[in-house]
Structure formats: C-alpha cells, structure tokens
Amino acid sequence: GMWAFAVYDKENNSIFAARDRFGVKPFYYYGDKNFFSFCSEIPPLLDLLPHNPRPDNQSIFDFMVFNRTDQTENTFFKEVKKLPHGHKINISLNGAVITKWYDLKQRVKQAKGFESAEEFKNLLTSAITLRLRSDVPLGVCLSGGIDSSSIVSTMLLDPANKNINTFSAVYRKGQRGDETEFINEFSSTVKNMNFVTPTGDSLEQDLTEFLTAHAEPIPTTGAYAEYKVMQLAHEKVVVTLDGQGADEQLGGYHYFFGFYFKDLLKKGKIGTLSSEAASYLKTHKSLFGLKTFLYFMLPEKLRTSTRVGEKDYLNSNFIKQHQNTNAIAGNLYGAGSLKDSFLDHFEYKLEHLLKWEDRNSMHFSLESRVPFLDYRLVERSLATPSHWMIRNGMTKYILREAMKGILPEKIRLRKDKVGFGTPEDEWFRQNNWQKIVEDILKSDSFRSRKIIDPARALEKYRKHVNKEINISKEIWKWVHLELWFRQFIDRTGKASKKQVCTVGVWDETIPGIKFDEKGVSNYAVIFKNISKDYPRGKKGEETWKKYVSEIKKQGTNKEYDCVIGVSGGTDSSYMLHLAKAYGLKPLAVYLDNGWASEIAVNNIEKMTTALKVDLETYVIDYKEVVDVLRSYLQAGLPWADSPTDIAIKAILFKKAAKHNLKHILIGHDFKTEGFQPTEWTYSDAKQLKYLARKFSHRSLKSFPTLSFSKFIFLSYFKKIKLVKPFFYLDYNKGEAKKLLTEKYGWKDYGGHHYENVFTKFIITYWLHKKFGIDKRKITFSALILNNEMTREVALEQLSKNPYNDTELEKDIDYLCKKLNFSRKEFMTLLNAPCHSFMDYPSYYPTIIKFKKLAYPLVKYFLPSKPLFIYQSEERNPVN
C-alpha cells in the first residue's frame, strides 16, 4: 500500500503515474509548456529551473504560524508541486491531467466499522504480518509509545521474531523526550535493543546533511531524532516498521479531545460531554483539551488570528499578505465532528509526517513500512463510532483494549503523548547554539527576508536562554527556515540562472553589480576606466621606463634598488625576469607560512639562482600561522587567506624600510586577474589581531602585520611606493608562462594562486562551497576583455566544478591535520553561518569615514590609484 510510480506508453507517447492512498511515498513535479519532469525528491528538479527557485510564502506562513507543511499540493518552492496522495496523472504532448483515484471519505462511508477490540486486533495483526515479508534484515523503530510498542508486542507473539532488532532514541533521565522507562519494558523479551542519544552537538554537526536530506523546512527537531534512529538502524537492517498513522486514525493527539467535545455538543449529548470533560480533567490534570474545544468553536478567521497572535515576532506585512489564504484554520481545524477531523488529518496533516519518515529512511537506504496505514485498517477504523476512539478521558481506546494481555500495562495505560521528542530547549541554551542562533538573528540575510522581526526574535531568544520562557520550537523554525533559504534559495548551483554581463562573465552573484539596457555591467565599466587610466603599448612603456629611471636613481650606490615579493607563481616569477631585463637590482623576499607547494618552492630557487638575485626568506612562527588561519575559518569569513596577504604586505614594507629602498614591485595585473569586490576580500591588521585574540584566546607576538598608522608613515613619510609594472606593459600570462618554462625550467602549478595549498583550497572550495563565490568570474572576465579568452570558453569553464573532486578528500584531510581540526570540526565550520568582514572590528569604517579627505591624498602619494577607489566611484562597496 505504498508507492509512487510512472509507466511510459511508447506507442501513445504518454506517461501514466500514480501515488499511494495516503502519501507514504513522494512524487514531485515541475514543468512548463515545453517539458514535464518528476522526481521522488525536490533538489534535482531545481536544476531544471531557468532561474533561481522562489520561496512559496504561503507555505512559509503556514509553517511559521501553524507548524504545518504539505497540506496542499504546494511545496516550499513556488515552481515545484507535488502530486496529491490518492491521485493519478496522465502526461502527453497535450499536457498533464491530474485526477483523484482514491477517495477516503467515500471508502469510509462504504466500510464496516469495528464492533469489538478483538476484530481490530486481528486486522492489525494481519497488517503487521503482511509487512514482515522480507528477504533482508528487518527491525522496528521503538519510541516507547503505544503505537510502535503494539507493533513490537504483536511481533513477539510469533517465536520466529524473537531475534528482532529495535531502534530507539533515548536521553538522560528527566530530559524531555526520554522514553527509557517505557522502552525498557521490553528489555526482558527483546534481545537486540539498540539505542542512540541525539544531542545539541550532534545536531550542529549533522545540520547541513540533515537539511540537505529534507530540502524543505521542518517545524520540529523530533524529525532529527528519527533521523538519528534511522542512521542507527542502517547499521543492522534494511527494512523497518514504524507506528506512523495511528494517531490520525485513532485520535492520538490530545487536541482531538477538543474535536470530540465539539462533536458531543453539536449532537446535543450534554451529559456525555460533561462526563468526558470531567474524566479528561481527572486523568490529565490539564485544561488543554478544554482550551482546544473553545478554539475549535471559534470562527475560521478568529482561529487564524488567535494563532497569529501567539507569533508576535512575525512581520506585520507578512501576516497581512497570507493570513486569509491559509489552508489550516479552515480545512484542518474546522471539522464539525471527531470522525471528520480524522478524515481532515488524513487529507491535510498526515502527509508531512510521512514525508519526514521517507526522507529520513531513504537517506540511509532503508525501506520504512507503516502497518497502521494498511488501507483496510484505516477504512474500518474511521468507520468505527467515536466512543471506540476516545472514552473516559483516554485516547486510542480500541487499540488499548485490543492490546490487553499483549502490551506491557505500563505502556498500554500511558496518558501522555511524546513521540520522537527531544530536549531541544536545553540544546538551544548551549554556548555553541547561542552563537549559531544569534549569528542568524543578527545577519543581514535574516533581516532581508522580512518574515520575522529580528529584534523581537532576539529578545525572545535571550529570555529562552535565561530560562524565563521555553520557545524552542520557534527557535528551531527560525534557524531552519533561514538555513533553508541560504542553501536552496540564495545558492542553488546549476539552478542559478542569473543575469550575466554581455561583455564579460560577471553576474548577479557579484556584490553591487548593476546592468545597463545592453546588459553591460558596472564592473565592465570599472575595467574600462582602469584601462583608460593605465594605457599600455608605447605610452605605457614610457611610463614604466620613468619608474625604472626613478628606481635606479634611488638605488644608486646601494646593493638593491627595489623589493619583489616572490611566491613561485607566474606573476612574481616573471616580475624577477622583467626587473633584471630592465637592469634593476631587486631583492627577492619570500614569506614562508608553511603552506607553499613543492613546485612553488622549486620555482623560487630556480628563478633566483638563474637571475643571481638575493633571496631573503621570512619564516613565520607556524603556531601563530595556525592560530590566525584557524581564526579566520572560525570567524566564517570568505577570504580566509587574508592573513597571508596582510603578512606579505607587512614583510615587503619591512624589508624595504630595512634596506632604505623606496620601491616595492607588485606582480598584480588587473587585465589578467581583474579586481575583487571589497565584500569578498577585505581584511586588515586590526581585524587580524582581533580575530586571533577572539578565537585562539592569545595575542600574536611575531606574526607580521602593518597597522594603518604604520602604513601611512611608510607610504607618505618614508615614501615607499607600491609599483605595479604590469599596469603599464603588454603582459600576457600565457606567454609569460611559456618564457619562464623554456628559459628557467619553471613549472606550472595548475591554476591561479595554486602555488600555495591553503590559498588554492580557499579559492576553489571554501569560497565556492560555503559562500557561493566563484572568483573565476572575476579572472575570466578580465581575460575576456584582455582578449586572452573567449566568453564562450569562460562560460563553459564556469559550468564545471572549480575543485578537483579526486583531490578534495585528500586536501581536506591535509588542511585538518595542518590546522589541528578534526574532520567534524572543519565540517561544522563549513556549515556554520557565513559572516562579512563588517561583522568584526577593522580600519574600514575609519577609511570610509574619511574617504573624502583620504582619496585625494591617496591619488597624490601612490603611483597607481587603488582599485577600491574605482569601485567606490562606480558602486558602494559596503553600505
């Protein structure tokens, strides 16, 4: 009774597909006038969209206000729909036609209800026995509740099942969700009991994988407990049985008392209503059932506004747009009788539980079977009078009666309802979760959704942390929804069909990008402006020669006349060749941070030896390198290799000052490298020191940095200049590589900045995987405008993963070993919230504050105008 299948009719060129009665198995689809596609999960369909997927805000509203999903054909993605349960679809060249093939309401009208508990027990036994057919190992997910316990107890009646495996989530005694005392009722009869304890730490570690497995938001961490149970079961079995569906057909949720009391009132059974209400109060010592009774008596609009009122953190405009179009208050909470409420639950509520179970089980390659959803059992149960479901203040009356003498009494007579609960209230008070939650609530992306008021949410969260309130379910929804947005809406890989500059390959992933009516981006304008200010050819060479004369003059009677930083890469190696070719006396400076590739080190030795250039190597204390690089990764910043850039700049100025040299030659070329957005790459010495203290808890002693004041002193007063020869000369990187290889035996290392292992990893994996940043778009655009690459080749290259998958595992292990991270620690950092350099102290606010004064000085003192000035003239780097 569970399936989703499609049959292709080759003769008629059509497809027939259908989904099971209750939605145990999923069927998603997406199409337009040209094609129709379908799948058992959503993510593959997103790759077919011609644009980024859009969020379905009505689904989000229902999720936030009512804790419900999957009540209609809609998903959380505007473009993706699901075939409703009990429906079929015929697909042909003329389109797709969806019709209902199974009508539960009609089937229940025709069914004969149970007349005794014995009848119910016999059919339940049949349903369970049918689902024990298996050629592979089989087990049961045992929660300790009456439903899964009934399955285990029924199975144990047959001696052939004595070696059954059970799988359970347990917690510390007294913690919310701990069912150990009930599960242990089977300790004397079940030989193979298996346990797992989900924790706040394990949830943090599994967060991305869990979100990826489900692809849509989930309103409770109970699904995560089930996820861990399935992970545990995967180690021993291939098939599991589960108690899903019993609550919906037997009135297992305590709010069903509200429907039952409403039913009795409408039928005029005041005496029964009074006795049942009294029994409820006596049994449960709670007003919840009466409160739900009053709630279900309210008009539909009041039911919605009441629930909305509980969510005082929601954006008022978001509420106005969606509160009158929800599918919950009327369809799920509007039933006039207990039986109708059961039918509504099968129609509008059960499916999200089945979806979570399917995603959890299939993620671990398990087949999960649900005997309570045997259609024979469902139809007859729903045709049975209400007093067999709720009686004397107890739910599932007929099941409890059927299990007499079979189920342990402690479980059979349980009054509470837990299911897969978790101590999530405690988890979200942990220090690691405080950081995760606060980072999300304070993030620009969270604020930009305009769904939740960040200030109000933060206020409520801090009350939760202080144990003034318990809003763990709301906290989880905030976190899950935002992470879902980031993973599936903000960054979607192949599905991302963003506008691309018509003369380069800059696209909408580039911060601050704008396009004119011809599709030309402002980044192309910036590039052209720089090119205009730094012409090449004869005029450029004349400018360069003036610098050469100035450098030689300043270096008269000195051992050296300029400093060149070397890395073993193309640009710095060619810079050595160029300097010598123009008769300069360079001092080569190499910063050893412990991450250079062997090829790069050999290239440095070959070049300096062949050109007879002195080399000074500065070796950084590797313990401090580890502290600093770890800090940038822990800070969640994109350009985590900023410390290397900062250290190189500091050492070059230090060496120039030491030898009384006025010129530092830099191998940067905007025409072959482009220019990076400030948001991607900015950092400075102030930020570096702050992050090192914050995350390593100790101050740096020897790591080279250059303070803002020191830079001003060395640049303006000591007159040390950064000169970029490639801004003036006709530099072609391909030709440079060829010359270096043929003349000096130089070797290529495989890509831009790949001479440093850490830099390579940051560029190709960290930036791309965590932030959705592909720096190739910058480089390729520059090469296109410099006529070194065609736009077609660039787009083709960008369609490929920038990282070599065969090297990935090895490089992650290498990085973890070098930086003293465990694999789990690194993956946690990779999956943690992203941050901007603006989230931490730096000199940047000061620079922006005094930019009107600083820019004229910078233009006057520096030989070339910094690229950030061009960006500021064409766009606001950071608002």
List keywords for this structure.
disordered C terminus, 879 residues, 5-stranded parallel sheet, alpha/beta, 43 helices, 50% helix, 17 strands
Rough outline? elongated
Low-confidence stretches: 492-496, 875-879
Characterize the biggest β-sheet.
5 strands, parallel
**Average pLDDT rating:** 90
Please work out how many helical segments DSSP would assign: 43
Counting copies of identical and different chains, the oligomeric state is single chain
> Structural class, please?
alpha/beta
Cross-sheet strand order for the largest sheet:
10-9-8-11-12
The percent range for strand residues is: 5-15%
Give the terminus-to-terminus CA distance: 57 Å
Cα Rg = 33 Å
Helix fraction by DSSP (H/I, runs of at least 4): 40-55%
Secondary structure tally: strands: 17
Short synopsis of the structure:
The protein is built from 43 helices and 17 strands. The protein has 879 residues and is α/β, with parallel strands linked by helices.
Structure write-up:
It contains 43 helices and 17 strands. The strands form four sheets. A five-stranded parallel β-sheet has the order 10-9-8-11-12, with helices on both faces. Helix 5 (146-156) links the parallel strand 8 and strand 9. By secondary structure, it is α/β, with parallel strands linked by helices. The model is unreliable at 492-496 and 875-879 (pLDDT under 50). The protein starts with a strand and ends in a 5-residue tail after the last helix. Helix 8 (222-234) packs parallel to helix 16 (350-363) and helix 10 packs antiparallel against helix 11 (270-284).
